[in-house]
Specification:
Oligomer: single chain
Shape: globular
Helix content: 55-70%
CATH topology: Leucine-rich Repeat Variant
CATH class: Mainly Alpha
Strand order of the largest sheet: 1-2
CATH architecture: Alpha Horseshoe
Number of domains: 1
Radius of gyration: 16 Å
Structural class: mainly alpha
Strand content: under 5%
CATH superfamily: Leucine-rich Repeat Variant
């Protein structure tokens, strides 16, 4: 991974390496704890997020699959995952949007601290909860609508959003 951070490395090589890492980490036989054994791995992956849409997609997918416990959520949270990934929800790439959305659903799952933080996050001047609501519109894919609804549901269950909040009430009544 340290080699991948060198700007002299070809982008195609970086993408190929990340694709391999993604394949390894999404395998059911790979212990997800491997991602967290070296404290430098997550910051390195965060730095690679800006390289291309493919690096964004693969890294979000790795994080989503390897975020299984509250400890994992806290590690990713503390490494600035929210700030680094939130803007990807407005990506021009559907695949990047979906992987970022899936990441937020696993990050918010049964985690009040993260959920409360998510309520106050702005994405290009728009509250993150409103971004999720926008992603639930009928012109979006079913997968996107359901994943965005899952994010809002987890935030609501964690107590970050009231059940009477407009983003919940308006979507339920439509």
């Amino acid at each position: 991974l340290k080699l991948l951070l060198c700007h002299l490395i070809d982008l195609k090589f970086i993408e190929a390496c990340l694709r391999c890492l993604r394949t390894v980490f999404i395998s059911p036989i790979t212990p997800v704890q491997l991602l967290y054994t070296d404290a430098a791995v997550i910051p390195h992956l965060m730095c690679l997020l800006s390289r291309s849409q493919r690096t964004q997609e693969y890294i979000c997918q790795i994080f989503s699959h390897c975020c299984k416990t509250s400890e994992h959520q806290t590690i990713l949270y503390n490494h600035g995952a929210i700030q680094n990934i939130a803007h990807l929800l407005n990506s021009s790439s559907y695949k990047v949007q979906m992987q970022a959305l899936k990441f937020f659903s696993v990050l918010a799952y049964e985690n009040p601290q993260v959920s409360i933080t998510l309520v106050n996050v702005l994405v290009d001047g728009e509250l993150l909860s409103q971004v999720f609501v926008r992603m639930m519109q009928r012109d979006k894919s079913i997968e996107m609508q359901l994943t965005a609804a899952k994010c809002l549901t987890y935030m609501c269950r964690a107590g970050a959003i009231r059940t009477t909040d407009n983003c919940i009430v308006l979507k339920v009544s439509i």
